[in-house]
Amino acid sequence: MAIVEPDFSRGVDGLLPAIAQDASSHQVLMFAWMSRESYLETVDSGFATYFSRSRKRLWRKGEESGHRQKVVEMRIDCDADCILMLVEQSGAACHEGFKSCFFRKRTEGEFEVDQERLVEPSSVYQKPHG
Could you give the CA distance from residue 57 to residue 82 in angstroms, rounded to a whole number? Predict the structure, then answer.
């Protein structure tokens, strides 16, 4: 079978969805976008680099907070248009200070926080994220 790379031509404005999952627990940590450039930097450096649509530039996970993602394994889906990374997460993956961006769980008709905050965002970020 041929080696396949992610097909960025199938993405939204050249960006593909990228999912970061904890390599040990398999908890989904976050979703972000990858450009070809951020993908190649991730492959070369071994640390997750994404493309920030709001900042319109590469976003090296942990560049401000220090909460980096060391990539242990990378996978692509059957259509080569979605990237899955198993990572070793240092600190919180979420800019709101939680281990996972998916810290709200729907129960009895509403979403409730079901994780403990690991870090206060103002202690690691210079400006608010959004």
Answer: 20
User: What are the strands, taking DSSP E only, across 1-130?
Assistant: 16-22, 28-34, 49-52, 57-60, 69-76, 83-89, 104-107, 110-113
Non-local (6+) Cβ contacts of 94 within 8 A are 29, 30, 100, 101, 103
Q: How far apart are CA 14 and CA 28, in angstroms?
A: 24
The domain covering 14-91 belongs, at the CATH homologous superfamily level, to: Phosphoribosyl-AMP cyclohydrolase (3.10.20.810)
Instruction: Name the stretches of the chain with pLDDT < 50.
Output: none
Rounded to whole angstroms, how far apart are CA atoms 16 and 95? 21
In angstroms, the CA 117 to CA 50 distance is 23
In the chain, the amino acid numbered 96 is: E
Beta-bridge mates of residue 18: 32, 83
CA dist 74 and 40 (Å) reads 12
pLDDT at 115: 94
Contact 86, 22 (CB under 8 A): yes
Q: What is the pLDDT of residue 110?
A: 96
Three-state DSSP at 49 gives: strand
